[in-house]
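Exercise 4. Each item below gives a protein and its sequence. For each, produce the structure-token representation.

Item: HTH-type transcriptional activator Btr (Brevibacillus agri).
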Amino acid sequence: MMSDRQALFQEFTEHVMADVIFKLRDIAWVKGDEHERLRQQFTNAHILLVVTGGRGRLRLENVEHQLRQDAIYVCPPMSTFGIDPDSVDDLRMYVLRFDVFMESRKRKRHLRALREEHEFPLVGEVSVRSAGQLVMHCDSIAEQWQQDGGIDRYRSQILFQELWYHIAKSVDFTAQDSATALERARAYMEEHYSQNITIEQLARIAEVSPKYFVDLYKKTYGVSAMDYVTELRISRAKQLMAQSHAKLREIAHQVGYSDEFYFSRKFKKEVGVSPTVYMKSRNRKIAAYRAPLIGQMLALKMIPYAAPLHPKWTAYYHQNYRYDIPVHLSAFRQNENWKANIEMLQEARPDVILSLDKANAQEREQLGRIAPTLFVPFEALGWREQLQMIGDFLGESAEAEHWLAAYDEKLGRARDGLRQKLGDEKFLILRVFKHELAVHCNRSMNDVFYNGLQMNPAYVTQAKVYDQPVTLQEVAALDPDRILLLVCQEAETLEHFRLLKLSVHWQDLKAVRNNRTHLITSDPWREYSAMAHERIINQCVKLLSGDRPC
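Answer:
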């Protein structure tokens, strides 16, 4: 029986593809050790990934795929993706950024971009036959693309059309079904985790022997099937603890444990605290309406009931707290998507809402209708005063004072250790976005890096916060001993940064010659919160205690 995906693809190849134009934006061959090009990033174009060697995992939005050489991976526009290599020395792949156009039916001779999944049905993992030929096609495209002549670039566009012809002829939905056998078993676990699941059951679903299933699952996902079932049960138990006043015995039974005492031991082993302690911390359903408020709540040893979570936009919180936070608000373009978040909060019915005062008048009114809301002054107060204000509002003033005292102690130790290591070395923080290079400092960098850790700035100005465009010649004149680099994780910027590092002016910089350039990430360096600032201190100690050049 033909699957929906197969039917969509057949419709596309038979009735649409003849009128489609594929336009290659760029092609790059990337190795696992080129880590800055593989981080979770946003794309406004289609992305095609062709693996040439090694193993790793692709996270496309919230879906994870094990990378294989007999498949291609397509990421749609306006999505995020990132690669985690199993071994940075082995993983190799082609990354092709492209657009898809079709003549508009309404306006003849007008090309319309195909950006929706129903228009361009290849998304995610797609199995292909003759995968070796894909690599040969990519080799030829890359060779022509790297030539200087316009006629060679034109040839690379023709070869790119031929690549898609080969893909269209080679898509193997039979192999796709075979490759997703483990996914079917995984889906079964996610739906039936509260039942008595056995390896024999899962092996039958995957249509392999039990022994082979055990080995293959562990090799593919890095965790055993039974450990994954435990993870699902504990995650669901956390949600139940946060959402209801059910007794521990009832929660244990709902997630698949007949013995509440065994469940308690299992929970403490996995989470680090007993169910009773965890439930006590979740008595109130507090919504953090903006991402920095997650960092403030965690400093108070409180976990939000609802908060903005996403693998890229709030990477740290998504990675570490997505199973603890039941309601995931949108973290992408919150100023534009606030109405959807309001609707989610109306349904979630939190007891209390924490917001920043940047919310517009309509947002404020609707938030106040849902629950008592604290609007924290973002510009008027520093992060310390914000933390104390939140602590007062939630009845956790003592916890706020205790955290700040511990933070100052950690800051002092880090400052003394780094001063001993670095002496009077001068620092410059550079931001790379698109084709622009800028001397950069935001509130967190000013408060923690320059004021708190007392790092010596190479660029001196009266402004505490700045983003000043700069040339490499001007950077050389500032003569920094070390450079911290904040590189936007999107394709155009990453390609510009790659070329920038190959330039003579870059390689002549003293910090570059001495291996004193360090990559920093927007998370936590662009978040203004207590927890983010503690993480900045930790990163500085790790980055600057030894030579870790980008």
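Check: The chain has four domains: 4-178, 180-281, 286-395, 405-544.
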